[in-house]
Design goal:
six-stranded antiparallel sheet; 29 strands; Rossmann fold; homodimer; 5 domains; alpha/beta; 698 residues
Chain lengths: 698, 698
């Protein structure tokens, strides 16, 4: 497969079907770009009516071209595309970029054309990129292929970009280019009728000169393919990704709670599971890429800050601390050494203020001493260029130390680059990631550190509850699901739900239904006090409102009285007593599951009751859950402190909650037909954890 | 006063004491800057050892200068400064910028020097700017005074900047300058020994050519002065402000809850109260200033979006919606007209995708139609420059419409500015605020809209509870406070607290202390069931743990039994029964007060119990509270829905809660000696609201 992408990304020759002499036309712009970027192979404009285009000989047809053609751009109107793909096949072309728009995105007619050209491409073993796309760029100095109608002629670098939206791709390229950063490969594949984003990611993963990948994605067509490829590539090199549409998605209606809350976060969970570093802001992803492209990954969260101005360092500290990083105190040795090497006015501390009058020797010593500090993992630098300081020399020292690549450095560089050209060039050549604002510099460093967390994270293991081991009876659950399916049920009945949960040994509050007052007392005794008694009849809709619910019944006498009272009050022939154990001193939790097309299940955990309603205090993970996942889930709700001893209240049995999560994970993995599942509420105290109500939709 | 600042900001002549020929020195850089920026008045270098500095005649002393000197820079070491201030006085100088550092920030010796030069300045009626500061810049074409050692030679514009930190000021200047934005006045006054930030704000407020003010501030020396001036100026023109130190401040320890939660947000509350638009990010404040400097203020939150590329528009929509804005549907007329004027492939909607091939006529029509839409208050534009489109013509149309200043436009402009120079220049001249990222463009528009909210906000009125009217008995409270002060009390006793609350007619839960079992029953009956009974003795520390608290006692028999049980269990001679009414179906709220030096009191309102512990679900306002403030407070907690009917539970008496807030506001306004006050918990149901526990520290 990837040798076909080789023809796309490393074409030895390029033809353009629809080349044009008209200045404002795509067929002209691509030829112009190929020439301007100094493409190393032959360029063949194809146009039946022209002899020369932009000084190059033009051919009537692709078939008239004398030499071999590896890659072709097609920019002619949709109806003519299939025949030209056929001609490309006859010519032995390996890959085609169809820039033309107007295929499946425009309705049935377009879709038919798309199906047509795809079939022809397949016949000749040609890979299609697009249609309705920009194309690719490869900056390799041996190739310099600008197969694209965009405008950013970037220099070679180690960042490769794949963007589902060409507009977003254009922003990323241009911003990095404006920052003086080189890039390696670029791809924006529009409709993605054949070559997919995961294939491109795999190609970038295999490309040795790609050090970091930027991904912009709006939707996934094959979640599993994406997950597999991304997981594999992310293990080799950093993938930084950003998605969009969070508010639209957030608004998407869903029947259930879990569904409603899951909306906007699915993509982020996928990124997380695959080991991709996720961003929510284009600037942050671009800036992070700059840092990743030149700096080593820090081993921890401790930052040493060096500054020659006060305010920006305060702002940076705020941002670093908000991002989970720390500024540890300096060692006694470091302080002793700094007292010798720094100016008198310097503030020897972390942040270390070398003051505005500090020169090259002060910066050199400050950075060297920070680099030697064992407890410091990275260096944050604020460098304003005072006109009364020899900043060129300062820059030289910073660059020299940085190039040893011991610990990452990021820099909030404050200057007029047009007047401080030499200083700026030295920092650029030294590969120092320089940012205009303290916040953006700090965020780039936070991103490096978060990638370290991601890279070194323990994934944990999924506990397998074998059949009939650990109390799991898959066969029993299978029969129930099969029966429900046969009956065309979507919502399982309470008894089906409880039986399934019992088969997976998921604890539910003890309950029973009694026919008579005497039976109620007997069953309440069997369950054990305290109990709740509810009047159960089809004629009673809002039990609580009509006095049909009594909680916290602690003895048989009260149970009898309550049942008798209900009997006289609700004199319906179908009256039954629903008796359930009443857990005191309990915390109300919720676990939910929602199936995501092509992805499997999202599992949600959180505080129940009004906490989930009001504060959305829940976390999601993708099934199957590992032991580390379940631990994370309990730790990552905002109200995690409530699970422990808190303000005189005893903590809950967290192991029990985690086990339920594991068992639910096993259940939904065994039965992919589960669409939604809710355990709500779950009551937990120091000892017991059990679901009080549950619901399954298939 | 302000004519003295006139000498600072509009000096007719400038001398520099400590001018130097040494390249890397402040005394050289300032002369260089004045020359480079083409200062229109005479420049007098002062240096006893030099005849010429940078081609200008140098003087041995300020007293040797033949002409009048309005403004002087002093850059010599601290010990020589007082004498030179004296000489300036003799010379008739009106204002001095002391750039030199090493005064009060370096300890006692420095402080003594600072006191010395200030006394001399006062004697001669000289205003001092600094010390330990950068200076000022005035870009007025008639003056061009660069009295500063920084490096950003900005062009004239309408943004004026005042920055407590010179480093942050340098970033703001440079970033705006890099964006091609002009500025008007700049000031960074370091130690601020004399001329204060509020004075500078007032000067900017009076300066006709200043259209928008950017303020960076770390701390306030005179909160009242700041509040008064800022409120006055913010009513005339937008003040955009940013503070720093949020995480440090957040960590500041405080005895009480309220104090702990108030930490980081005081400055934001001050900004809010003064009508200043608050930012938490340097980039956002700079970008907002760009939009404010050229665009009108939108009248509402509805945006019309026009784009020629998809992805960035999605990202922008996310950001606008997150910022509280909406993209309303287009009118039928607009849709009909657009169907005629747009390309076939265009997506006629809001966002309106004119598609990449759209030219000048399409953009023109799109913007004109959006401008005419009554329900649209502002225009968001995404404009990528396709090389196959005549972008110069597009830019001309955009600029022409924008200059009519009907509704604000912001633009996410995606291009290579070096190659699209003409297009870029046209947009610049048209005053279109252009941003590289969709998020930043959207945020700038959100800021314009938030300013509209701020500008049109209702401030409301403070309800005055006159003595003995509305149940307020200030005289009674005065006696209690006086007695407590006489007794050197810091923490008032429960009975003092309750009496004060009663004097201000703040409802507290009915309570009583009973001596005997019989008395307990009598008092419980008087209070009315249900009640809580607590065993009250110095020997019982953790009442709940030892079974000393019984809640929800509903009748006299139970009350008697409970009291008897307690009596036999806790057989202490001092045993009493604390009886308090028990409010069922209640919501637990909290109101807190914390005094802030120089500012008055912060009042906090929020959900009580674990909500305040875990979710910090509280809002703060500065006293005195208006009726609008109290309404805002109830609306702005995250769990505001719980105050209304919610999931079958009845809402609470919100008027009652607001009245308590008003009365607490009156109380702390009447008694500034109150340091902290907590009503925690307050129980509220549909009818009643009352405090169950309270605490006052003076």
């Amino acid at each position: 497969m990837s040798n076909k992408l080789k023809a796309l990304f490393e074409p030895k020759s390029i033809a353009l079907i629809g080349a044009s002499s008209k200045e404002f036309s795509i067929g002209n712009v691509i030829i112009k770009n190929l020439i301007h970027y100094k493409y190393k192979g032959p360029i063949y404009p194809v146009n039946p009516k022209e002899d020369k285009i932009r000084g190059l000989k033009a051919y009537k047809s692709i078939l008239d071209i004398p030499g071999e053609v590896e890659l072709v751009h097609i920019v002619i109107p949709p109806p003519y595309v299939p025949q030209e793909v056929e001609n490309c096949g006859l010519k032995g072309v390996k890959a085609i970029i169809i820039n033309t728009a107007g295929f499946k995105e425009m309705g049935e007619e377009g879709l038919a054309l798309e199906i047509d050209f795809l079939a022809r491409a397949k016949k000749y073993n040609i890979r299609i990129f697009g249609p309705n796309c920009q194309g690719i760029i490869n900056s390799d100095p041996d190739l310099q292929a600008y197969c694209n109608f965009t405008f950013t002629y970037f220099k070679p670098g180690s960042i490769s970009i794949v963007a589902q939206s060409g507009g977003v791709g254009a922003i990323i390229m241009q911003v990095l280019h404006d920052m003086g950063i080189g890039m390696r490969l670029y791809a924006s594949n529009g409709n993605a009728s054949d070559i997919s984003i995961p294939e491109i990611i795999r190609f970038y993963g295999d490309d040795e000169k790609t050090k970091v990948i930027i991904l912009y994605i709006e939707s996934l067509s094959d979640t599993k393919e994406f997950m597999d490829v991304a997981t594999e590539v992310a293990a080799k090199k950093p993938i930084l990704a950003i998605s969009a549409g969070r508010t639209e998605k957030g608004a998407a209606a869903s029947k259930s709670h879990t569904g409603g809350l899951a909306g906007g976060i699915t993509m982020e969970l996928i990124f997380q599971k695959a080991g991709i570093l996720s961003f929510s802001n284009l600037e942050e992803i671009c800036h992070a890429a700059v840092a990743f492209s030149s700096q080593p990954i820090p081993k921890g969260k401790n930052v040493g800050m060096i500054t020659n101005t006060g305010g920006p360092a305060i702002i940076a500290t705020d941002e670093l601390v908000s991002g989970g990083m720390s500024l540890p105190p300096l060692s006694k040795t470091a302080i002793r050494n700094l007292k010798v090497t720094m100016l008198d006015a310097a503030s020897i501390n972390n942040p270390l203020d070398v003051v505005a009058t500090a020169g090259a020797s002060h910066f050199k010593s400050a950075i060297e001493i920070m680099m030697k500090e064992e407890q410091i993992d990275s260096i944050y630098l604020t460098f304003v260029t005072p006109p009364f300081v020899d900043c060129v020399s300062v820059a030289k020292e910073i660059s020299a130390i940085s190039q040893m690549q011991k610990k990452p450095i990021v820099c909030n560089y404050i200057t007029d680059k047009k007047n401080w050209k030499e200083t700026t060039a030295i920092l650029d050549e030294g590969g120092i990631p320089c940012f205009d604002y303290p916040e953006t510099a700090a965020k780039a460093l936070v991103a490096l550190s978060k990638y370290n967390d991601l890279r070194t994270r323990e994934k944990g293991t999924v506990i397998r509850f074998e059949n009939n081991k650990g109390g799991v009876d898959k066969a029993k659950a299978k029969i129930i699901f099969a029966a429900a399916k046969n009956a065309n049920k979507e919502v399982l009945s309470a008894s089906e739900v409880y039986q399934i949960l019992e088969a997976y040994n998921i604890p539910i509050a003890r309950w029973a239904v009694a026919d008579s007052v005497e039976d109620a007392v007997t069953k309440a005794e069997a369950i054990g006090y305290p109990v709740v008694i509810k009047a159960d009849s089809e004629n009673i809709i809002h039990k609580s409102d009509v006095g049909g619910v009594f909680v916290n019944i602690t003895n048989s006498e009260d149970a009898k009285n309550v049942a008798q009272l209900m009997k006289s009050k609700f004199n319906y022939p179908d009256l039954k007593f629903f008796i359930q154990e009443c857990l005191n001193d309990r915390l109300e939790l919720i676990i939910g599951v929602k199936a995501e097309e092509g992805l499997g299940h999202l599992i949600m955990f959180g505080m129940g009751g009004i906490m989930v309603e009001v504060y959305k205090d829940v976390v999601f993970k993708i099934a199957p859950l590992t032991d580390v996942d379940t631990k994370d889930m309990l730790q990552n709700i905002k109200s995690a402190v409530l699970l422990n001893d808190f303000r005189g209240k005893r903590g809950i049995n967290k192991e029990g909650v985690m086990e339920i999560l594991q068992r639910i994970s096993a259940l939904v993995t065994d039965f992919p037909e589960i669409k939604e599942l809710d355990l709500n509420p779950i009551f937990a105290n120091t000892k017991r954890v059990c679901a009080v109500d549950a619901r399954i939709i298939i």
